[in-house]
Design goal:
The model has no long low-confidence stretch (mean pLDDT 96). The chain is built from no helices and eleven strands. Strands 2, 4, 5, 6, 9, 10 and 11 form a seven-stranded mixed β-sheet that branches. Strands 1-3-8-7 form a four-stranded antiparallel β-sheet, with no helix packed on it. It is globular. By secondary structure, it is mainly beta. Helices cover 0% and strands 48% of the residues.
Length: 123
């Protein structure tokens, strides 16, 4: 199970840090990703990180503003979101992908999903 938290209401230009934790013992094997789904939109890739944390990948819309990281000792992955914009408003989901050799943006490649945490950015 993946548990995401850290969402909330923030003004444009502000910051939030999302966390996603799991009790699974094999966390360090999984590639992890953050996706989001805005009102009336498809769920889209935001950021991903390799199992070791050495490789990260971002959607163009968040490059330079968001940072994904992980702590395998704590079975957790994080998404630091800075310079938030109204268009970042969405429900954010963490996801885990097994048997991957690269950071994928494809939603169907992720095997496990958290319940989502809502981020609202007021302009």
């Amino acid at each position: 199970q993946l548990q995401a938290c850290g969402g909330g209401l923030v003004q444009a230009g502000g910051s939030l840090r999302l966390s996603c934790a799991t009790s699974g013992r094999s966390f360090s094997r999984f590639y992890m990703g953050w996706f989001r789904q805005g009102p009336g939109k498809e769920r889209e890739f935001v950021a991903g990180i390799s199992s070791s944390g050495a490789v990260t990948r971002y959607a163009d819309s968040v490059k330079g503003r968001f940072a994904i990281s992980r702590d395998n000792a704590k079975n957790s992955v994080y998404l630091q979101m800075n310079s938030l914009k109204a268009e970042d408003t969405a429900v954010y989901y963490c996801a885990a992908a097994a048997d991957q050799s690269y950071v994928t943006t494809i939603r169907s490649r992720y095997d496990y999903w958290g319940q989502g945490t809502e981020v609202t950015v007021s302009s």
